[in-house]
Amino acid sequence: MKKIVVFVSLLVLSASAFSQKKDYLYTLESGKGKLHFVLYDETPLHKANFQKLVKSHFYNGLLFHRVIENFMIQGGDPASRNAEKRARLGSGGDELERIPFEYNPARFHKKGVLAAARDGNPEKKSSACQFYIVQGKKFSDTELNNFESRNGVKYTEEQRTVYKTLGGTPHLDKNYTVFGEVVGSTALVDEIAGVKTDSFNRPEEDQKMKISMKKMKRKKITKKYGYHYL
Q1: Parallel, antiparallel, or unpaired for β 33-39 and 113-116?
Q2: pTM recorded for the entire structure
Q3: Which helix (H) or strand (E) segment is 77 a member of?
Q4: Which of 70, 66, 50 shows the shortest CA–CA distance to 58?
Q5: Residue 45 in 3-state DSSP?
Q6: 123, 147, 160, 218: least surrounded by Cβ within 10 Å?
Q7: What is the CA 43 to chain-centroid distance, rounded?
């Protein structure tokens, strides 16, 4: 009997270890092209929630309804599906249960990261469906020093280099949950960020999205897209 129990336990452990060798690669498509991204293991609540929404095709047909060049592109409002022109968007999904704040200092607002939108709730809980992808801009050491003091963060030399050379939105650090990042090219982010918008930052021409997911070996994701897991 003991041998059987041990054998079963080993099977469970092996299955668990095997599952960690794979991850989901997400593909976001729009009329301007496509991009690929992964979600962080360090933010499990956000990862599981987003995965559930993609599996149910929740995002297909929704808009990037708030676009600000050199800042970010935001989407995921369920009210944006078939929304009338010039309709104000951004409050859809408020009736859904918010996701607890998941802050990890290793995950910061560099260009290409996905982060959860939220309202002004003091717990910094995230919207259950709205997210943004950072475009941002480059910052100097002096500016980064100011953000460290203002937000109570401490950047590593590597993070500073990223903000100075790649860019991002460091003023948002420690205030919103960063839960994934684009792997490979971020060209689509630049394309959408550069479209003409109205006075409410909604693109004058609808920017619809479609998001799909595919299980893939982590080693393959690293080899093909250069992404390294923590």
Answers
A1: unpaired
A2: 0.91
A3: none
A4: 50
A5: helix
A6: 123
A7: 11
